[in-house]
Amino acid sequence: MKIKLFTVFLLYVISSYAQDFDYARNVVNRLASPEFKGRGYVDNGVKTATDFLTGEFRKLKLEPVVNGSYSLDFSYPVNTFPGKMSVSIGTHELKPGIDYLVEASCPSVKGNFGIIAVRPADIDSEEKLSSVIEKAGDNFILLDDTHSKDETRETAEKTSEVIRFLKNSTDIRLKGLILCQAGKLTWTVSGFQSPRPVIILNKLPELKAGDKIKINIKSKLIKDFKTCDLCGHIKGSERQDSMLLITAHYDHLGMMGKEACFPGANDNASGVAMLLNLAEYYSAHQPKYTIIFVAFSGEEAGLLGSKAFVKNPPFDLKKIIFLVNFDIAGTGDEGIRVVNGSIFKNKFDLLARINNDDKLLPKVDIRGAACISDHCPFYESGVPCLYIYTQGGIKAYHDVYDRAETLPLTEFTNYCKLMIRFFDSF
Ligand SMILES: [Zn+2]
Predict the structure, then answer these.
(1) Where does the pLDDT of residue 1 fall: very low under 50, low under 70, confident under 90, or very high at 90 and above?
(2) From the CA of 369, how far away is ligand 1's center (Å)?
(3) Which fold has domain 85-217?
(4) CA of 80 to the centre of ligand 1 (A)
(5) Potential cystine with 275: which of 3, 29, 187, 248 (Cβ 3.0-4.6 Å)?
(6) Separation of 299 CA from ligand 1 center, angstroms?
(7) What distance in angstroms lies between residue 249's CA and the mean position of ligand 1's atoms?
């Protein structure tokens, strides 16, 4: 009976602290709000997020790891779009982020250019390719790749080879490429500029004879963009020299011009909300092991924050007994998926067992190794780790629709409880 009462008490304590749903919601709303400019490279976006998180770390009384400061500085090259951006085809003005994207590596371009429309099937030999390029001169080629789903693998490979050549060849006069793809627009970050602009459309425009593309894109390559990871900790009550790491990246894609903002609510304001919720819980309940909280920058540019951390660690990485990375934590309608689950199978089994016993999330799926988020550089350095993401619900990803207003945080509270039970089991 005593044990039962104690369990009930413990569960009460866990739920009363783990259910700080309002805090999580506020964090997501703030980080994905217009003020943060998509936490990228225009108008101090990611810097605003750095300052906000520094304030939260301080409020939660996390102790700095190095020299009284949370920040671990690093820098990298990045192509940015701080200026005006406009693209019209014929008389139709396209909306940035909704009707089109510019490739992340797009250089500046301005003017009126003719359009030569072709289908990949029309370019089935080198001669045909040469004649299309010849015909286009210093105008744009519009490539209709909207049927790529029906293509055979061989055709698809040929198409991407043609696209690669048209994008990158420096020996041709071609001004630029309009790529019409089926499906959603998905943006990225680039550390360089391509030789010519590529405009990506999500549907084929209705072209009339003589229609031109009127385009004005201002891009700026920053050779040495400065940012930082944030690292704070809560000392363990027993094992201060053995650490658990809780990580999540706080950067996102930023702005594509002055209008199109990529808010990154699910990716990864939600993961940061998880990190801060866990920090809030453990600042009120001292853990046995020291817990280090790391918010990475530069993830979207190629895991650059975690790579910088591993390259120049503020403590010996051998002291890390386990790391869990959160990147996309905002739904959960179909549970979670655990990268590295099949590699650290006993930890995966433990997580699945807790979930089963406490009936928290609809599903805990296993996955093998995948170098797709910030756990990866640690894993490659021999640190045992899992990367967990939620599944189901809204499908917005790397687009202008990944907004706080539509992010449900469906299973956030139970997800948080599950993680507390998991970390407490060490
Ligand atoms: Zn992400």
Answers:
(1) very low
(2) 16
(3) Glucose Oxidase; domain 1 (3.50.30)
(4) 19
(5) 248
(6) 7
(7) 7
